[in-house]
Amino acid sequence: MEPPAAPGPERLFDSHRLPTDGFLLLALLLYAPVGLCLLVLRVFIGVHVFLVSCALPDSVVRRFIVRVMCSVLGLLVRQSDPRLRGAGTRVFIANHVTPFDHNVVSLLTSCNTPALSGAPGFICWSRGFMELGVTGSRAELVDSLKEYSAQQGNPPLLLFPEEAATNGRAGLLRFSSWPFSILDEVQPVALQVRRPLVAVSVADSSWITELLWTFFVPFTVYQVDAVCPQTSGRAE
Questions:
Q1: Could you give the C-alpha distances from 6 to 1, 162, 197, in angstroms and in order?
Q2: Which of 35, 68, 78, 193 would you label with 223, given CA atoms 20 to 30 Å apart?
Q3: Calpha distance 182→232 (Å, rounded)
Q4: CA 48, 191, 116: angle at the middle one, nearest 5?
Q5: Is pLDDT of 155 > 50?
Q6: Cβ contact 193:168 at 8 Å
Q7: How far apart are CA 41 and CA 74, in angstroms?
Q8: Residue 199 contacts residue 16 (beta carbons within 8 Å)
Q9: CB-based contacts of 23-28 (< 8 A; 24+ apart in sequence)
Q10: What is the mean pLDDT of the chain?
Q11: CB 123 within 8 A of CB 129
């Protein structure tokens, strides 16, 4: 008898949003009217959150206000260490679970995430990505990010070496090497996301679909854990 095949990369992704357990599915059906009301209400509140985040300059006060407002949207952000950023940290490296990971981390510390895909413009900016105007190779992107990091007045970078969101439960995708070539020291950040009733994210789902499901469920909890800064030799 042949041994069972080792689980493949598909275990890192959820292909179905709804639960397969009958009890959870029944609970979801009973909750649906409440969830739809929350969805409509949170869409209007979300517009106010966006306007406030645009109006206020980046500061501790702004992050606190927006974080409180996001809790009304069902986005609960927790961190094990209130000092997320070490002295002199210029590059954060994090695993990728949802399309809003960069927005969540920016509620805790000032950081920028470059846009690696998608059309530039209002949508890219409104989602909180930084446009560099680089459309060429990864080498050009790395050079641009090195130049950005060399300017001390700029916020640190937040990068996702997986370059794709996973379910965050079974493991990690193979990291790309280019985020570690920007500076010699990086600070890893571990993200864990959980929510009741439905999957946190689904493969090939659009960011707007994920946003609507976030507004629909009662809450989504983001746990952010920082690790000690790593030098390039240790990070490799």
A1: 15, 21, 28
A2: 35
A3: 10
A4: 70
A5: yes
A6: yes
A7: 11
A8: yes
A9: 24/197, 27/197, 28/197, 28/198
A10: 85
A11: no
For residue 93, which phi and psi values (nearest 5 degrees)? -120, 125
Rounded distance between C-alpha atoms, residue 117 and residue 161, angstroms: 14
Residue 136 in tokens: 């060429």
Question: What is the Cβ-side half-sphere exposure of residue 235, based on CA atoms within 13 angstroms?
Answer: 26
pLDDT digits (tens, 9 = 90+) for 106-142: 999 899 998 887 666 888 888 889 887 666 677 888 8
Spatial CB neighbours of 149, under 8 Å, sequence gap ≥ 6: 90, 91, 156, 157, 182, 183
Q: Tell whether the torsion through CA atoms of 207, 213, 216 and 219 is positive or negative.
A: negative
pLDDT tens by residue, 28-67:
999 999 999 999 999 999 999 999 999 999 899 999 999 9
- Whether the CB-CB separation of 10 and 198 falls below 8 Å is answered with no
204 φ/ψ sector (left φ>0, alpha ψ -120 to 50, else beta): left
Residue 196: C-alpha distances to residues 17, 74, 142, 219 (Å): 12, 12, 39, 7
Structure tokens belonging to residue 61: 């006060």
Residue 62 to residue 107: CA distance in whole angstroms? 9
Count of H-run helices and E-run strands, the chain: 7, 8
SS3 55: helix
